Amino acid sequence: MKKPKLRELGEAIRAIIEGPYTAKFPYVPSVPPESYRGIIVFYEDRCICCGACVQVCPANAREMIDDLTKGVRRNIHHQEACIYCGQCVRYCPNEAIKHTQEYDLAKLKREGYENFVEKELAYCEIC
Length: 127
Known about the structure:
Elements: H1 2-18, E1 40-42, H2 52-56, E2 62-67, E3 72-78, H3 87-91, E4 97-99, E5 114-120
Antiparallel strand pairs: 1-4, 2-3, 3-5
């Protein structure tokens, strides 16, 4: 019974001398590794709204809506449903979707979780 208590006492003394084991995250930001898959961003100028990202998303976090009355196609990314697997980044033909190093996902309003790109809808002139 003495040995476990002595071990705990030794651990407590080492913690006092060496300092805490945990990082002071909110006050000192941590640097994520290079391969970290953080928040996904769209580059609207590169996106052609082809829908490849919508087809490969396993979490159905992407949605393509064609508004025929306005003549626009809307590519929506629902961040709250995203699992950050990177399939959309991999299959985007124009590299319009990228992972960032940002890891703080907290938002004050639910509307802040939706990213979208809106492009003019191309109609077939023959049909």
